[in-house]
Amino acid sequence: SETMTTNEDKRNPPLNGRRAFPSDSSNDEENEVPEMEAFGLIPRGFNPKDYLRVVNIHMFKEPHEVNKQQHHTDKYYSPKLIVRRGQPFQIQIEFNRPYNPEVDQFWLEYLIGRYPQQNKGTYIPVLISNVLKPGEWGAKIIHKENNSVRLSVMSSATCIIGKFRLYVAVLTPFGILRTQRNAATDTYILFNPWCQQDAVYLDDDKEREEYVLNDVGIVFHGNINDIRLRSWSYGQFEENILDACLFLMNKAELELSGRGNPIKICRVASAVINSKDDNGVIAGCWDNMYAYGIAPSAWTGSVDILLEYYSSKQPVRYGQCWVFAGVFNTFLRCLGIPARLVTNYSSAHDNNANLQLDFFLDDEGKLDTKLTKDSVWNYHCWNEAWMTRPDLPVGFGGWQVVDGTPQETSDGMYRCGPASVQAIKHGHVCFQFDAPFVYAEVNADIVYSRREKNGTQVIENIDRTHIGQLIVTKEVGGDGMMEITEEYKFQEGSEEERLALETAVMYGVKKQTIQDTMYQPQTDVDMDFQVQKAILGSDFKVTITFRNKSRNYYTATTYLSGNIVFYTGVTKNEFKKHSFSAKLEPSSSSAFDVVIKSSEYLSDLLDQASFHFFVTARINETGKILAKQKATVLEIPALRIKTKGETVAGKEMTVTVEFTNPLKQTLENVTLRLEGPGVLRTTKKEFRQIPVNSTLIWDVKCIPNRPGLRKLIASLNCDALRHVYGELNVQIQKP
């Protein structure tokens, strides 16, 4: 027997025994519906031209027209129609003659993907009726004039998010006539935080303005004692970014039928944002070696990264936590999921999820770096996305933690979330996904222990308040900082906090119990230290203070260790060791200064000019140890940005960036970047050298295309100096 192979067979992947249709996980692939679908034999005299025929479809897709205005999609730089689900939009169909409801019957068909099926929500016939039901597919005629009818079309509030193809179908006695495939009528459907039936509904208009429509934001970094901020351009409305974000879901192989569910979208996106295990968007790099890539500190926004990935399909090098979080935020806001970037200061990276970070000291009370695997990040950035959680008990909807930075695996992949912030606060860490890990990031205890010669471990000190001291995000409608620590945890030391901890332990967060007999700290002496604020390149001092509350005379053998660290708390090297003996008079306080010279640290400095100091003191009379650790960052000089001439949309203007070299050395191979959504595309310039104390001046000409308050963001990068930023708010006038 002969088998005929058609083109159709070649295009479709082979089926397996499990399903009648291949899985449909690409929004790019298409297949056509027939323009003439006959019901049987067609009589010879049949002429399609005798029947109602579609001449034109008008989509009202311009930014100033009704659809994009009502759906808050007028900022997207895209010629196609973009609407939000669960809310009516208008289209107008022009026929070859006036439409007569007595004899004519037509309907709309929305298709997505390669194998459209009605039960999967990927083939949607929309019939014309007299009334629209909220949040369900439907269409009704709102205006008839000559040969045209204007329709109001309602999409389902649970509709798949993506790019749909539109056909108009007309019924004739002998078959269905459809319009030809026409890319100009493609319709993007997005999440709708303005629609009460949508899972991402957010009821506050100012919050929607910030968490969905704002295309710039602030990243808080530095450390708990010295909070720094820099702007980040999300650029979710820029050209091709929406297509790039839809491509990420194809890359993650999320089935089309799952793309109406924000929980699934967030979970697969948290894996595909990082390049581990799936060749995702950004390759992480934390070792200060950025050969063959761009240093994480050089990026000023998400657009360049997403567009490069969309065209090359290869991971973009390099990112660290704020880069992963910045790009993730763009993805979420672009699809219409309310999102914000959050910073947790003193964030625990708990390798074995036992709710404690183990710091091991050697005989002298110095940190044993070989044994210590856990680390405290000066700060860690993640995202929160807003949605209901129908998969959890009532009360756990709202903000959910999602994290694209690859730290630990979850169900075999580097991903994290969504985890309900409310569940983390109350210790209900049994609810999916990854709540125990996030709980530890904000609540772990630091345990200092020392191994005796005979092998027994002695706990010297427990710090219950160092981790997760401050959790912040950008305020709504401004550039200030909003503290959200109490969304994550109750007041330190309160009854509720203990209760939440016991709940978390009950739900299986491992916590080692510490016998009281083993741990008896020295309570009658307090030790603390302060690090003087200093500018990069200058000397500064560390002041160690003791308060002896007893009537005894003590001596303390004190050891200060200064380390250059990555912001993740991982040590690169120890640049300062200093020991001294402190005499502590009864009932009195005493202070000791240790000077740190710039020559001691400059040669080894890393990206974030970040230090970590350990001070340990042994009270010789009792053998007890006092331990304290603190991170500190140097002041890094900023870029200055100015504009010349008038700032009017459509008119050329000049932006000037200036920088003075603060170091005692010439800066070499310096890269500057400048961008501002709606004002100019990212521009780069290389400078071979900036001598000591000299000032660089860079003029950039541009033509802004969007009026309103815009933000310009610049960064400077070279091997000796990173994390140099500048920004400027510019009011662009209407022409």
UniProtKB/TrEMBL annotation:
InterPro entries in the record: Ig-like_fold, Ig_E-set, Papain-like_cys_pep_sf, Transglutaminase, Transglutaminase-like, Transglutaminase-like_sf, Transglutaminase_animal, Transglutaminase_AS
Family, similarity comment: Belongs to the transglutaminase superfamily. Transglutaminase family.
Subcellular location: Cytoplasm; Secreted
Gene3D superfamilies xrefs: Immunoglobulins, Transglutaminase-like
Cofactor: Ca(2+)
Free-text comment on the cofactor: Binds 1 Ca(2+) ion per subunit.
Protein name from the UniProt record: Coagulation factor XIII A chain
Alphabetic keyword roster: Acetylation, Acyltransferase, Blood coagulation, Calcium, Cytoplasm, Hemostasis, Metal-binding, Secreted, Transferase, Zymogen
GO molecular function annotation: metal ion binding; protein-glutamine gamma-glutamyltransferase activity
